[in-house]
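Subject: Fluoride-specific ion channel FluC

B.,
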Amino acid sequence: MAVDRRELAAVFVGGALGALSRAAFETLAAPDPGRWPWPTFVVNIVGAFLLGYFTTRLLERLPLSSYRRPLLGTGLCGGLTTFSTMQVETIAMIEHGHHALAVSYTVVSISVGLIAVYVATMLVRRVRVRRS
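Prediction pasted inline below.
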């Protein structure tokens, strides 16, 4: 299997932008297992929305490109979102006795993430395609 170096570069650039954005956003609040982890929650929901938007737009509205999806989906959204940090935060909540917070954080994160993808997909599909 041949490796497309430009596609790898697109993933790298998108991933770097996403990870740097997440890191900058996560400096806004110190981790506390007794409180809602807003930075992680927000980047995951924004990332889910963007992934729904980009995936639908790239597949249904734009001409085929071998670099847009790796750049925006795998790279940017993959670097921005962090499911593993959500899991670590949830375990910390449980270990500190905040069971209700852990359950609500998990349920709300997954539910709102799914809603974000759905809303983004519907927004892309509602926009009329202009014909010249």
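The CA atoms of residues 18 and 79 lie 4 Å apart.

T.
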